[in-house]
C-alpha cells in the first residue's frame, strides 16, 4: 500500500474538527474528502474541488453519492466496508467531467476515527490516474493486436534476457515448435530445435555474432519440432542494448514450410520442364505478341550458335535472320495469333546469319491469354536437313544406278553391234571364198578377212579397255599436281605439237591438286590435246588453253581450242559415243572420247562441252574433289 | 528381163560395200552401183541427181552407224526429197538395239518409200529377193 498523506494526518485529525484542522485539510496537496457515516462531505481539500471540477458549487454536507452521478457498486461496497473498519482499500473510479471528458481516479479510503477510536466517517483520497489507465488500455490493445497479428501471420516473437538468462517465447513460437503452452525453454534447448548441421551451426553463429558484434540475423533454416516434424522457418533476431550495454536478444520466428515446399515443387517442375525441353531433339521457343523470343531451349541456342538463352531472349527474327526469312516468319506468327489456329509441320527453310541453310518442319501454336487473345506463340521446329539430304542422296543414288544401268545396256548393244558387224563380215567373206574360182579375187577376199580379223582384235581391245575402266571404279585415286601433269603431257607431245604449229597456254593454277587415277588423267589430257590438234581449223594454227577453277565439289579443268568446232545440236548426243566420228578425218577412230568419258565418270566426274562451228570447242572436265 | 537402173550402197564399212557389190554383180540385176561412206555423201549425191534430173537410185542399202551423218539422219532428209517413185530402202545393220527397230517402224510409217530392216550379214538370197521385187514392180 502506498504511503499517503492520509496516514500522516490521521492521528492529527482525530477528534472534533476545528477551524484550524479545517484550514489544514483545505490545503492538502491531494484531492481529499472527509465524509461522515451518512456519506456526507464534512471536509474537502481545494484540490478535490478543482480535480472533480465542482467549481463554486457547495459540496459540504452533500452526500457523496449525490455529488457523483454514478458511483460504482464496487466503490459503494468499499465505502461501506470502510465504515465497518477495514481500511486502505483502493479502487479506480471513472468520472465524467463537465466537458464530458472521461477521467479515472484512484480512490483510497480509510476509516475516520474520533479520539475514542470510534469510526465516525471515511477519509477519501483521490488521485487522477487517467493517463495511466489510458496507457494501460492502449498497451492491452496493442498486445492483443500483436497477438492477433502473430497468430494470423504465424510470426512468433521471443526475447532473451542475458541477466536472468531467461528466454521468453510467445504462444505462436510454442505452436510452431509444437511444445506445450507452459514449456519454458533454455537458450541451449532453443538452439537445439534447429536441425543438426547447417541450420544449427548457422543459428549458433548468428547468435554469437549478434552478442559479440551486434549484427542482426535473418536466415532461412530447418527445424525439427518437438513432435518430430521437419519444418522450414525464417529466424530473425538482433541484440538489445541498454545504455550501450548488451542486455539480451530479441527476435522473431516464422514458419514457411508450405511456402518452401511449394517453392521447391515449383522449382522441381521448372527443372523437370527445363530438362525436358532442353533435351528434346527439337528447336523449341516461345514468342511474345511482337514475335520476340521469351523462351528458347538448348537445341535452339545451339542452332543459333549461342551458349546461353540470354543472348537470344528479347530478340525477334529480324535480329536473327535475313529480312526475307524474317518477313515470312513474322507473317506466319501474325496469322497464327490472329486466327488462333496452329500451323502444324510446315516445311520451312531457314538461313542463319552465318549462311547455313536448314530445312525445318515447323509448328506454331498460339498461346491464348486471359483476354481470349493470343499472348504469343509456341514454336517447335524439327531439323529435317539430314532427312532431306539423305532423300536427295538416295535420289542421286537411284539416278546413278539407273544411269549405270543405261550405260550397261548401251555397252551391251555396243559389244553386240561391234562383234556382230565383224562376224557378219567373216561369214559373208567366207561364203564368197567358198565359191570363188578366180585366184586374184580369192587373194583379195583373204586380205579382207585378215583386215576384218585385225579390226575385230582392235575392237576387242577397245572394249576390254572400256570394261577395265568401268570395273576399276575403286582404283585408288590420289592427289596429283594438275599443272605438272599437264606440263609433262605437253612435253611428251612436243614433236606432234610442233608439226601442227600448235601453241599450248597452260594457265592451270600451279599448286592445285586433283584426286585422280594418274593414268586416267594422262589419257584424258592426251586425248583432248591431240583431238584439239586433229580437228584444227586448217586456216589457223591450233591454240589450246588450259584453265582451272573450283566449283562446288569439283575441280574443273577447261580445255579450249580454236579448231573446227562441233555442231552440238546435231552431234551433241553422239559426241562421246563409241565409234562415232563427225569430221571427214581419216585419223578419227571414234574411240578416244568414249574412253575418256568412261575414265572421267569412273572417277566420279563428268564432262560438259560448249562449241561453235568455225570458232572452236571448250571441254570442261569436272574432277570430283569430294570423294 | 529388165535391169534395175541404179543401186546405192551407203555404209562406212568397206567389207560390207564389197560384199553387197559382189552379190549384186553376180546377180547381174543392175546397171550401176553407187557407194557412199556416210549419209552426208549420199544425200548430197542424190540431191545433185534430182537437181540435174538424173535418175535417183531405185534400191538403197543403208547402214545405221556411220560417222558424219548416220542412217537415221540420212532418212530424215531423204524422205523430204521430192521423189514420187517408191524407193526400196533396206536398212542393213548389225545393231540389235530395240531402239533401232522402233526407229525403223516410225520412219516406215512416215513415208511412201518402202523401208525394210535387215540384220547383217545380208545374204545373196535376200538380195535376189529384193532385186526381183523391184524388177516386177
From TrEMBL, chain A:
GO molecular function list: protein histidine kinase activity
Catalytic activity: ATP + protein L-histidine = ADP + protein N-phospho-L-histidine
UniProt domain PAC: residue ranges: 217-268, 344-396
Keyword Kinase: yes
Sections of the chain in a coiled coil: 423-466
Gene3D superfamilies for this protein: Histidine kinase-like ATPase, C-terminal domain, PAS domain
EC number(s) given by UniProt: 2.7.13.3
Residues annotated as domain Histidine kinase: 414-627
Keywords of this entry: Coiled coil, Kinase, Phosphoprotein, Transferase
Signal sequence coordinates: none
Superkingdom, taxonomy of origin: Bacteria
UniProt-listed InterPro entries: HATPase_C_sf, HATPase_dom, His_kinase_dom, PAC, PAS, PAS-assoc_C, PAS-like_dom_sf, PAS_4
Protein name (record): histidine kinase
Organism of provenance: Zeaxanthinibacter enoshimensis
Taxon lineage: Bacteria, Pseudomonadati, Bacteroidota, Flavobacteriia, Flavobacteriales
From TrEMBL, chain B:
Pfam family, one: Response_reg
UniProt entry tagged with the keyword Iron-sulfur: no
Residue ranges of every copy of the Response regulatory domain listed in the record: 6-135
Modified positions (4-aspartylphosphate) in chain numbering: 63
GO biological process: phosphorelay signal transduction system
Transmembrane segments: none
SUPFAM superfamilies: CheY-like
Swiss-Prot/TrEMBL keywords: Phosphoprotein
PANTHER family tied to this protein: TWO-COMPONENT RESPONSE REGULATOR, TWO-COMPONENT RESPONSE REGULATOR ARR22
Name listed for the protein in its UniProt record: Response regulator receiver domain-containing protein
Amino acid at each position: 500500500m502506498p504511503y499517503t498523506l492520509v496516514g500522516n494526518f490521521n492521528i492529527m485529525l482525530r477528534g472534533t474538527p476545528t477551524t484550524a484542522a479545517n484550514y489544514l485539510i483545505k490545503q492538502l496537496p491531494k484531492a481529499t474528502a472527509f465524509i461522515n457515516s451518512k456519506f456526507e462531505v464534512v471536509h474537502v481539500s481545494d484540490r478535490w474541488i478543482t480535480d472533480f471540477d465542482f467549481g463554486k458549487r457547495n459540496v459540504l454536507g452533500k452526500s457523496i453519492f449525490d455529488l457523483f452521478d454514478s458511483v460504482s457498486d464496487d466503490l459503494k461496497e468499499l465505502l461501506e466496508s470502510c465504515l465497518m473498519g477495514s481500511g486502505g482499500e483502493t479502487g479506480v473510479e471513472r468520472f465524467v467531467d463537465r466537458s464530458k471528458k472521461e477521467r479515472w481516479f484512484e480512490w483510497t479510503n480509510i476509516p475516520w476515527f474520533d479520539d475514542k477510536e470510534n469510526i465516525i466517517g471515511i477519509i477519501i483520497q483521490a488521485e487522477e490516474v487517467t493517463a495511466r489507465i489510458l496507457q494501460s488500455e492502449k498497451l492491452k490493445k496493442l498486445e492483443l493486436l500483436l497477438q492477433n497479428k502473430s497468430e494470423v501471420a504465424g510470426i512468433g516473437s521471443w526475447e532473451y534476457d542475458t541477466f536472468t538468462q531467461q528466454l521468453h517465447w510467445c504462444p505462436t513460437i510454442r505452436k510452431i515448435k509444437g511444445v506445450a503452452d507452459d514449456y519454458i525453454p533454455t537458450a541451449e534447448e532453443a538452439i537445439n530445435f534447429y536441425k543438426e548441421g547447417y541450420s544449427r551451426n548457422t543459428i549458433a553463429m548468428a547468435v554469437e555474432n549478434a552478442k559479440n558484434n551486434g549484427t542482426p540475423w535473418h536466415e532461412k533454416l530447418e527445424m525439427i519440432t518437438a513432435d518430430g516434424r521437419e519444418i522450414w522457418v525464417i529466424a530473425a533476431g538482433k541484440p538489445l542494448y541498454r545504455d550501450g550495454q548488451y542486455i539480451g536478444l530479441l527476435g522473431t520466428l516464422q514458419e514457411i514450410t508450405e511456402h518452401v515446399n511449394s517453392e521447391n515443387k515449383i522449382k522441381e517442375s521448372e527443372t523437370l520442364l527445363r530438362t525436358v525441353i532442353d533435351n528434346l531433339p527439337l528447336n523449341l521457343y516461345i514468342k511474345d505478341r511482337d514475335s520476340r523470343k521469351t523462351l528458347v531451349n538448348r537445341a535452339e541456342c545451339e542452332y543459333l550458335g549461342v551458349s546461353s538463352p540470354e543472348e537470344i531472349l528479347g530478340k525477334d527474327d529480324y535480329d536473327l535472320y535475313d529480312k526475307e526469312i524474317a518477313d515470312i516468319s513474322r507473317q506466319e506468327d501474325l496469322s497464327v495469333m490472329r486466327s488462333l489456329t496452329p500451323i502444324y509441320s510446315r516445311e520451312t527453310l531457314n538461313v542463319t546469319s552465318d549462311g547455313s541453310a536448314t530445312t525445318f518442319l515447323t509448328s506454331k501454336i498460339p498461346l491464348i491469354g486471359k483476354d481470349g487473345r493470343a499472348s504469343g506463340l509456341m514454336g517447335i521446329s524439327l531439323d529435317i536437313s539430314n532427312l532431306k539430304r539423305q532423300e536427295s542422296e538416295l535420289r542421286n543414288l537411284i539416278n546413278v544406278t539407273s544411269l549405270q544401268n543405261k550405260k550397261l545396256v548401251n555397252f551391251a548393244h555396243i559389244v553386240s553391234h561391234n562383234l556382230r558387224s565383224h562376224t557378219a563380215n567373216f561369214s559373208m567373206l567366207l561364203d564368197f571364198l567358198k565359191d570363188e574360182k578366180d585366184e586374184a579375187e580369192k587373194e583379195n577376199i583373204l586380205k579382207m578377212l585378215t583386215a576384218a580379223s585385225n579390226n575385230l582384235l582392235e575392237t576387242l581391245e577397245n572394249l576390254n579397255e572400256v570394261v577395265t575402266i568401268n570395273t576399276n571404279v575403286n582404283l585408288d585415286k590420289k592427289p596429283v599436281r594438275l599443272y605438272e601433269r599437264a606440263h609433262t603431257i605437253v612435253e611428251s607431245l612436243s614433236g606432234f605439237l610442233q608439226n601442227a604449229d600448235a601453241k599450248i597456254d597452260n594457265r592451270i593454277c600451279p599448286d592445285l591438286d586433283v584426286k585422280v587415277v594418274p593414268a586416267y588423267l594422262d589419257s584424258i589430257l592426251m586425248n583432248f590435246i591431240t583431238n584439239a590438234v586433229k580437228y584444227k581449223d586448217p586456216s589457223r594454227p591450233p591454240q589450246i588453253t588450259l584453265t582451272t577453277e573450283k566449283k562446288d565439289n569439283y575441280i574443273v579443268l577447261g580445255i579450249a581450242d580454236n579448231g573446227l568446232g562441233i555442231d552440238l545440236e546435231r552431234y551433241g548426243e553422239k559426241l562421246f559415243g563409241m565409234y562415232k566420228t563427225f569430221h571427214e578425218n581419216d585419223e578419227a577412230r571414234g574411240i578416244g572420247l568414249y574412253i575418256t568419258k568412261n575414265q572421267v565418270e569412273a572417277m566420279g566426274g563428268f564432262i560438259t562441252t560448249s562449241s561453235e562451228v568455225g570458232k572452236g570447242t571448250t571441254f570442261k572436265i569436272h574432277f570430283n574433289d569430294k570423294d | 528381163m529388165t535391169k534395175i537402173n541404179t543401186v546405192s550402197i551407203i555404209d562406212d564399212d568397206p567389207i560390207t560395200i564389197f560384199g553387197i557389190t559382189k552379190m549384186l554383180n553376180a546377180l547381174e540385176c543392175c546397171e550401176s552401183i553407187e557407194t557412199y561412206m556416210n549419209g552426208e555423201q549420199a544425200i548430197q549425191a542424190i540431191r545433185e541427181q534430182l537437181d540435174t534430173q538424173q535418175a535417183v537410185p531405185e534400191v538403197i542399202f543403208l547402214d545405221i552407224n556411220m560417222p558424219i551423218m548416220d542412217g537415221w539422219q540420212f532418212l530424215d532428209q531423204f524422205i523430204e526429197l521430192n521423189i514420187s517413185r517408191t524407193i526400196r530402202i533396206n536398212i542393213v545393220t548389225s545393231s540389235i538395239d530395240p531402239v533401232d527397230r522402233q526407229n525403223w517402224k516410225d520412219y516406215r510409217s512416215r513415208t511412201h518409200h518402202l523401208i525394210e530392216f535387215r540384220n547383217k550379214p545380208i545374204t545373196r538370197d535376200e538380195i535376189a529377193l529384193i532385186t526381183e521385187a523391184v524388177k516386177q514392180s
